[in-house]
Amino acid sequence: MESVNLESTSYKAGAILNIQVCYALPNVQTLVYLQLPVGTVLYDAILASKISSIHPQIHLAQQRVGVFGQARSLYSVLENGDRVEIYRPLIVDPKLARSLVVQKRRTKRVIFYRSL
């Protein structure tokens, strides 16, 4: 578990963090703005956002989370201005998806032959 360095966060009595919690589906993005106390961890921010009531398919035990595209532990301490992201599980392995795209492009090529 990470600890909070109160000197680096310019801690003041009653200090708050402005945090966003984000979950995106292919056709909709949900963004919840929160003000939470200094020392809050990702897990607490996600619970406070109540985003799982909007998207019941979220299962934190199975999904990865992060801040600004960088994977983090559920118990990472947040900083002011952080955007907590809940990542959807991959449907297709990225390497397999890329090879399927390349294969599809190869089959679409038309080759013209000149007869002499």
UniProtKB/TrEMBL annotation:
Pfam families: Ub-RnfH (PF03658). InterPro entries: Mopterin_synth/thiamin_S_b, RnfH, RnfH_sf. It comes from the Bacteria. Belongs to the UPF0125 (RnfH) family. PANTHER family: UPF0125 PROTEIN RATB (PTHR37483:SF1). This is UPF0125 protein MYVALT_F_03010.
